[in-house]
Amino acid sequence: MRFGAALLSKPIPPADTRVVFLDRDGVINRRRPDHVKSWAEFEFLPGVLQTLAELTRLAIRLVIVTNQSAVARGLLEPRELARLHARMTAEIRAHGGELAAIYVCTHLPDAGCKCRKPGTGLFRRAAADLRIPLEGSVMIGDSPTDEEAARSVGCRPILVGSAQPAHGTQTAPDLAAAAVLVRAFLAREQRELC
Ligand SMILES: [Mg+2]
Ligand SMILES: [Zn+2]
User: Fold this and answer.
1) Residues tagged active-site
2) Which of 12, 32, 68, 139 could be disulfide-bonded to 21 (CB atoms 3.0-4.6 Å)?
């Protein structure tokens, strides 16, 4: 007798595999038209450090997926980008937040790579490396390419800032507000489980 089988056919991932994918520029830090090329140009957006700490306390794994063509453009050495991300990670950690990983596409927009969003390569690499589900995860971004990439892999997109979302995509003014939506979504999922 296995009557639980039908009910359990679509298991909800356990809390420790809940993932929120985050775009970087325009979500974590202020975006610059001329690219963020150094730590001096990196500016956390208001409320971000607190929000990342809060999501970490909810046992959500935070994975950054970011296009950084500044590297292929020769504006930033890969080593510099790695240092910048190490400082960013340390700053986030000092405030109680934890990043599970950072995945970067360093290619030019016309390079034809599979990783630059709206391509899905970064998401797929994260899923394989971290053994995390894409389906049912959340992606918070600030541009239509984030939204498109998220939808392609079955993630639920949330758009922050002023980009015009496609039909059905949730929007929020900033990461803190997006986190409120994430909490509501998780709480609803939890209720459905009970
Ligand atoms: Mg962005
Ligand atoms: Zn790429």
Assistant:
1) 23, 25
2) 139
Place of tokens 């950690």: 93
CA terminus-to-terminus distance, the chain: 21
CA of 187 to the centre of ligand 2 (A): 35
Task: Tell me the domains of the chain and their CATH numbers.
Answer: 14-193 (3.40.50.1000)
Residue 1's pLDDT is what? 43
What pTM value is reported for the model?
0.90
Ligand lying closest to the C-alpha of residue 116: 2
pLDDT recorded at residue 116: 98
Return the half-sphere exposure (C-beta side, CA atoms, 13 A cut-off) of residue 66.
23
Specify the 3-state DSSP secondary structure of 21. strand
Ligand 2 midpoint to CA 115 (Å): 4
